[in-house]
Structure formats: structure tokens, C-alpha cells
Amino acid sequence: MNISGVKYTFQCAESAFQAHKFVGYPDLIKQFEKVDGDKAFRLARANNHLKRGDWISGKMNVTTMEKVLFAKFDQNPELAPLLKATGDAYLAEHCPRGRDNFWADNGDGTGRNMLGRMLMDLRGPWFGGTGRVAAPVNYVQTLQNVGFKNSKGPMAAAGRVQAAANMCIQCHVRPKRVKAGGGGGGRVVYHDYCGNNCKEVARKAGAVVLKCIRCHKKDRSTDPISGKVHPYCTKYCAGLAAKGR
After folding, report:
1. Rounded to two decimals, what is the model's pTM?
2. Which of 3, 104, 150, 204 has the greatest count of CB atoms below 10 A from its CB?
3. What is the DSSP letter of 43?
4. Mean pLDDT of 141-165
């Protein structure tokens, strides 16, 4: 990667990201070429007094992360299919509770999850996948029920959040029952419930049709041909969700 017109080679994305904090200190930047992510984090912390002044105030941290992520996937083409394979799943950088409320979900879903958002943005226009989507309505409950409190990284969390989307909408513990015959073309189509017991409990409780995961007001739209239930009520809500609004 180029920093101030000089080309450097780093062992990993974390090292490259941390090195960008020290523009104007080429000898220090060279040290980041020799260390892994954990050591790079500690090296940056030890030299925090030399960090560029606009790192936070000028949002250079965000700009740099976008640059580093693009370089990571551009220079390692085998990673792109893995990112695209997450489909329309909500990607989350999951961490222990209280550790990071900016780059991650803060462990309880309250964090801004900037890294997860950036990966979704990258997944969309650059790799022909689905861009940014809104977090599941029951995201915090998902963290508890699916049990990935100790998993690390957005790719690991993505698979588990996607799995949570296939959980029974009543008990949120057992997986939804698969519809016989599927949806054609080899696609798997699920019922809303794990079985008749949960379906009956929901009926007696006056369960309503699933609502749009963005506005939470209108019913989700259904494809008239395949019968697939979309996560959003309209293309308008889907477009706003893709923009993180």
C-alpha cells in the first residue's frame, strides 16, 4: 500500500490500518511491515502521541479502513467469493461486551458496527452482491439465542446471523421447518415456525404477519411467482436500508 507516496508491504490489514496513523514518521511505519495485527495494535498504542491529528476529527480512520479493506479484497481475489456468498446477510463485527462500540457491535448490538457496514458496502457494488442491509429486528436476542458470543470477525458473525434468520419466529430457538418441494431451482423455502406447536402458540397469541425489517410498520412484500417473502415492504424501504437509513 502507498502511504504519502511510499509503497509499503504489510502482513495483514490491521498492520496496514495502524500504520496509516503515523504519516510523517516513515521509520515508524516500516516497523508495522514486520508485525502481525496484535503487535501492530500494541505498537500503535505505544506511539499514540505521534498519531496524526485528523485521525478522528477528520474521519481519516474511516477513510483509511475503506482503503485498506478494498486493498485486502483486491489483492486477495480468493476472498471476494466468500464475501459475496454471504448474500443478503447482515454482517457484524462481533466482540466481547463493552469492548468496541464503533467498529463492532459492542457485544450487545448497541455498537455502530462500522466494519460490518463497510464490508456490506464492499459486497454490493464491487462484487455484484447485496449492499448494506439493516440489522435484524431481534438482533440483540439473536446474539443470545444463536450463541456466538465468543466468535470473532464479521465473516464468522455473518453466517450465524444468517442462521438466526432461519430460526422459528415464535421460540427463536429451533430452526424453521423446511417446506416440502422447496421453491424451485433447488432453493430451500422455510415455514415461519419450527413445528405445529409453535404455530399454534403464535395463533393463540394473535401473531401478525412479519413486518418490514426497516420501517417495522408495513407487512413484508411477497413475490407473486415464487411466493418468497422479502425482508422489506417495498423497494423504497429496501433502498433506504441499503443506504443505512
Report:
1. 0.59
2. 104
3. H
4. 52
DSSP designation for 3:
E
What amino acid is encoded at 120 in this protein?
M
- Is the per-residue pLDDT at 56 higher than 80? yes
pLDDT classification of 230: cutoffs 50, 70, 90:
confident
Query: pLDDT at position 136, please?
Result: 75
Print the domain residue range for 185.
166-207
Helix (H) or strand (E) holding 66: helix 60-75
**Grid cell digits, residue 59:** 474521519
Residue where a domain stops, chosen among 30, 57, 75: 75
The 8 Å CB, 24+ separation contacts for 41-49 are 41/14, 43/18, 44/18, 47/22
Assigned C-alpha cell, 183: 421453491
Rounded Cα distance, 64 and 70, in Å: 10
Q: What are phi and psi of 119, to 5 degrees?
A: -65, -40
Domain boundary among 13, 42, 75: 75
Residue 211 β-bridge partners: 219
Question: Exposure string (b/e) for 33-57, b if CB count within 10 Å is 16 or more?
Answer: eebebebbeebbeeeeeebbeebee
**Pair 202, 174 in one domain:** yes
> Per-residue confidence at 142, pLDDT binned at 50, 70, 90?
low
Integer Cα distance of 27 and 47 in angstroms? 12
Q: Which helix (H) or strand (E) holds 45?
A: helix 37-46
